[in-house]
Amino acid sequence: MKIRKVLIANRGEIAVRVLRTCRELGLETVAVFSEADRESLHVRYADEAYCIGPPPVQESYLRGDRIIEVARRAGAQAIHPGYGFLAESPGFARACAEAGLVFIGPRPETMEQVGDKIAARRVAKQLRLPLLPGTEEELDDAGLVEAARHIGYPVLVKAVAGGGGVGIRVARSEEELRSVIPLARREAQAAFGDDGLYLERLVERARHVEVQILADEHGHVIHLGERECSIQRRHQKLIEEAPSRALNPALRERICEAAVRLMKAVGYVGAGTVEFLLGPDGDFYFLEVNPRLQVEHTVTEAITGVDIVKEQLRIAAGRELGYTQSDIRPRGWALECRILAEDPAHGFTPSVGRILQLREPGGPGIRVDSGVSEGMVVTSYYDSLLAKLIAWGETRGVAIVRMRRALAEYRIVGLTTNLDLHRALLDSHRFFGGQFHTRFLEEHFARSEPEGEQCLAAALTAVLLDWRRRAGARVGRSEPASRWRTLGRWEAMGGRGW
Amino acid sequence: MKIRKVLIANRGEIAVRVLRTCRELGLETVAVFSEADRESLHVRYADEAYCIGPPPVQESYLRGDRIIEVARRAGAQAIHPGYGFLAESPGFARACAEAGLVFIGPRPETMEQVGDKIAARRVAKQLRLPLLPGTEEELDDAGLVEAARHIGYPVLVKAVAGGGGVGIRVARSEEELRSVIPLARREAQAAFGDDGLYLERLVERARHVEVQILADEHGHVIHLGERECSIQRRHQKLIEEAPSRALNPALRERICEAAVRLMKAVGYVGAGTVEFLLGPDGDFYFLEVNPRLQVEHTVTEAITGVDIVKEQLRIAAGRELGYTQSDIRPRGWALECRILAEDPAHGFTPSVGRILQLREPGGPGIRVDSGVSEGMVVTSYYDSLLAKLIAWGETRGVAIVRMRRALAEYRIVGLTTNLDLHRALLDSHRFFGGQFHTRFLEEHFARSEPEGEQCLAAALTAVLLDWRRRAGARVGRSEPASRWRTLGRWEAMGGRGW
Amino acid sequence: MRYRVEVEGRDFEIEVDLEGRIWLNDRPLDVDMEQVDGLPQYSLLVDHRSYETVVEGEREGECRLVVAGRPYLARFLDRQRSPAQAVYRHRAEGAAQVLAPLPGLVVEVGVEEGQRVEEGDRVAVLESMKMHLELRAPRSGIVRAVHISPGAEVAQGEVLVIVTPLPQSGGTGNPENS
Amino acid sequence: MRYRVEVEGRDFEIEVDLEGRIWLNDRPLDVDMEQVDGLPQYSLLVDHRSYETVVEGEREGECRLVVAGRPYLARFLDRQRSPAQAVYRHRAEGAAQVLAPLPGLVVEVGVEEGQRVEEGDRVAVLESMKMHLELRAPRSGIVRAVHISPGAEVAQGEVLVIVTPLPQSGGTGNPENS
């Protein structure tokens, strides 16, 4: 189908990301928004925008019916779901097809096949992909406990319908497993509407490596190399990079080949990711398929030059991939830091409020994908991802020093963010050396050390502010005209002309 | 010499640009600033900052003596001059050497040799580089008039000590030449302290192509390919790109080889550019050498991945180039738009004032090198370059649509800028087709067409603002609390806690 | 309330009723305007079409805006509907001021007090950002005041020269309200 | 004026004289602090070392700042030197105003004209950004004026209540000049 108008069924940075490519391709765009997002960047960026309900996601961004209605009314031919929300819902994908709309993602049957984590493991097993010991079918509570005896502790308890690291729990003993199962079922039911669980052997100090795949309707399947996402907090990725330092060329070849083979086997169409765990012994294990665009797709774009969203749109329009495997020649190294509105010093609690000042970094090798603008209010309705900061360099070392430099330039005033945590991580020798694993953050987290000079600067600022107020009161001096006063008066300056 | 601390003898975007690379390399940095620049980004970015005088450049940024004194006092080993100001002053480079400081640029003798445009033409002639008909030595007024008879009209009158397109004048007849010479001498004297002039045959509808060179102390000279800078206003570049659409591989090979040969012949050390004119007939002619970093170096960085400032610092430290010629493998296409505080609709008059709002574009393929921040006052003391917007794409077409997209995202409120002119240029079919030359802007300039829908949006905003004010006055309603009020109150909220 | 507004040569008849409902050329229009980021910047949804408008300045009967980065001038054709009436000051006597369009250095002053000038005569030259700007008489008349001399630094908007009309030229009809 | 400030476990003795000259632990320090971009953001040059500091919040005796992106807390060890005092403006005659520190809605008024109050008594409660702010009497004395009532919307800086000293309390010595 000829696609001329695309509805983006998402918000925040990923909605803006998709809108950017649509604009570059000359496609018309339709945004949808909840009542909390009327002022958001994606609403202002799109050609058209429709309110789809109150702030809670169940009443807005998860309301597939309303979104399809908007798409029809606006005359869109296609819907891009971004990530999260409806991106992995086969039901929504089917409803789109029934409404004559192109769902920009894999076919619903594929989503079902890989969305059920046990089913995906079954396919991988048939293809002789290495798997971690785990359960092969859905089991009741007793069955899980029984299975764990064969798998061996520690085990991970995961939701069959899960994704994005949500609801994963560790059990190190049978006692712990018994207590964890009912909690995990409740969480899974709440998050995915399905309380099915499965178990997987927990590999300690493992690394997380994933392969980006593009596949078109015409049977072409290529990979764009791997990403490493081992820096996580609570099973949520925080820093990603491409390529991975954990792979040598031979291992890279094997992992990427395995990913392509799996996606061919399931008849995958679209952009997707195959996730693997890399054990400390250098063995890799299939974990799951993410049948959608990922947050960290940007690092792959940085090293390959490929616009993955553009390829998604081409594939959805029934066109052939713009690349063959040999066209993909990664160059250099890229890192991504997720800039979150949360307080690492207080258990990563989310932070809300108005962004009083925003200054984003720039210069060579730096890309910022932001979902916020200065003056905007960050609410507690949605996730805490404010922006993604991507640094490219000819080598990993250059990418790291650029990222450090960019983090130092970043200013977000008004909210607590994890910028300082990123600084501490990027400064760590172990990160520089590439010696980390999925529990690195928990084991090595530290707020960056206070610097004596900066302490003095802080002390002097506090003192001089106080002193100047007193001096101002005494001698009638005042601070120079400030910007907000300028702005305030600005509005009333009608008569001044320009 | 081991360089640990670098003084940046410049301001604005280029000072920030150099500071960024210094920070990435772990070098300490020293900024200098005039009294007008106390709040500037480069002062806040550097590790140390010293005031060197009042706002006029003659009393601050051109005061080499003061700058060297600061460098000594701060313990810097090297001085980076950026572009403009002292970047092409052999006297300053010598004074640096005498003070035991590394001047990050070519040797003073080289600067003299290529800085004198007639001398540079002489070298090029010896090397049998193609030259435009022109004068071979400094001549008095009568000599110039006589020479023009042999060269043939129209001629360009240029300053022997000139650069950056300053003070270039066209004479289409002997009468015009006679009237132009005294003006040109005065301008040259004022701008460069030297009233020497030379003539060059004017090629109409020519294109401007230049080759980026890197050369180390050890005799290695490589090129990073060419840039095209044909979109100019008043002989000042406005949009640059790399590579050039005007070159085929054979011509590219010849031009780049000619540039390398010239730079080898003058024993060039550092980063420099050799400029050529490309006639409508496809012939190329040597114009001049720019013995410094150029504004538009960023497009070369975008396609080669090389950090040119980093190479300058390596070369200055006496190290070998980090690349051989075969390491340079350009990829894709890059464009740069110079974002200027000036009003294209009124003869490009400069615009000054406070930047009330600044929102810079981001996302894939976009780089912003900015010298300003929100709230900052743009004064009339220095040039009008606010920022550079660079777009990279796999092809020229992708780079153009990205640049358009980024221009649409850019918001600078409070000053008149040339953003809209860039939009109009990038939208033009002739630009897209690559059919332009150095007078393209003058012949084809148009403000972008008003769009009917946008006119309606403007009308509605004006009407609703008025209506709401009246309604607010009537029913006591008011606009919601605005950000500047939020900010204003914020400062006084000492007692509130947080 | 009925407005007539002209933008870049296009005329719009816009009516807003007491509830804020809007008609364009007598057809109803679904308009949602929201101030964003606490700035003089608005998100407009016009029948769901999305626009970002920035109000850069207002003066009598006019509003200067930027839409999608492009500058637009909206003029209220019915002068009574102008947003800024109250603030703008008319000089009844028809005097015209020459203001500094930019901060800069006065390099030349071409007139003296009491001198007669024609509209367009050069009254001063200002140097700003290395450019020479010629300032010209906004009307014919008598130079009433010269507030500058060569070498003076002036701020943007500063009154440099005032020109008043000759008795005969000032007597005909209403003064222009420019 | 002498300050003792503690930041992240480090103590600083800072003295500022009437001309604004600064001593750190009794050694002179060359400090230039400039507000930048019209925001609560400062460029500091300390013996030419450059720092950018952002003041995120102040409350009694404490100032929360960000330096080079890292959060710091500065605590005034001598409570008298707390920055918050400055909010209340003392009048020469000793009258003190209670100003609205934020725009908001008055939800409670706790005093009446002519009533006697002690320093620190609650005089009003303001709701702003879903927070309730208690406004307290800046000094002991008599409530001379109450400009608000519950339900009123107030602008920032608006004078809400004025308190004048009792005859006996106003008579002792000079008022503090803070």
Description:
The complex is a heterotetramer, with two copies of chain A (498 residues) and two copies of chain C (178 residues). Chain A is an alpha+beta fold and 498 residues long. Chain A is 37% helix and 23% strand. Chain A folds into four domains: 5-104, Rossmann fold, CATH 3.40.50; 133-201, 2-Layer Sandwich (Dna Ligase, domain 1); 207-444, ATP-grasp fold, B domain (D-amino Acid Aminotransferase, Chain A, domain 1); 455-487, no CATH class. Chain A has helices at 12-24, 41-45, 64-74, 90-98, 108-115, 117-126, 141-151, 174-192, 249-265, 297-304, 308-316, 396-409, 419-427, 429-432, 440-444, 452-475, 483-491, and strands at 5-8, 28-34, 48-53, 78-80, 102-103, 155-159, 169-171, 197-201, 207-215, 221-233, 236-242, 270-278, 284-290, 333-340, 342-343, 349-350, 353-354, 357-359, 366-370, 377-378, 385-393, 411-413. Residues 473-498 of chain A have low confidence and may be disordered. Chain A contains 17 helices and 22 strands. In chain A, helix 4 packs antiparallel against helix 5 (108-115). With 178 residues, chain C is mainly beta. Chain C folds into two domains: 2-87, Glycoprotein, Type 4 Pilin; 90-164, RNA polymerase II/Efflux pump adaptor protein, barrel-sandwich hybrid domain (OB fold (Dihydrolipoamide Acetyltransferase, E2P), Beta Barrel). Chain C contains one helix and 17 strands. Chain C has one helix at 167-170, and strands at 2-7, 10-16, 22-24, 27-29, 31-35, 41-46, 49-59, 62-67, 70-76, 96-99, 104-109, 116-117, 122-128, 131-136, 141-146, 153-154, 159-164. In chain C, the strands form three sheets. Chain C has a nine-stranded antiparallel β-sheet with strand order 4-3-2-1-9-8-7-6-5, with no helix packed on it. In chain C, strands 10-17-15-12 form a four-stranded antiparallel β-sheet, with no helix packed on it. In chain C, strands 14-13-11-16 form a four-stranded antiparallel β-sheet, with no helix packed on it. The chains are: A alpha+beta (498), C mainly beta (178). Chains B and C meet through strand 16, helix 13, helix 16 and helix 17 of B and strand 1, strand 2, strand 5, strand 6 and strand 7 of C.
